[in-house]
Specification:
Length: 50
C-alpha cells in the first residue's frame, strides 16, 4: 500500500491533462468553425458587391 501515495498524484495529473487536451480540441474546433464562417461571409460579400 506504499504505492497509493504515488498513484493519486499521477492519476490526478493524468485527469488534468486529459481535461486540458479536451479543452484544446474544443478551442481548435471553434477556431476552425469561426474561420469558415468568416470565409463564407467574405465570399458572399465579394460575390454580391456592386
Amino acid at each position: 500500500m506504499a504505492d497509493d501515495g504515488d498513484q493519486d498524484p499521477e492519476r490526478a495529473r493524468l485527469a488534468l491533462e486529459k481535461k486540458r487536451e479536451r479543452y484544446v480540441w474544443y478551442y481548435l474546433g471553434y477556431f476552425l468553425f469561426g474561420i469558415h464562417v468568416v470565409a463564407f461571409v467574405m465570399i458572399y460579400a465579394v460575390r454580391h458587391a456592386k
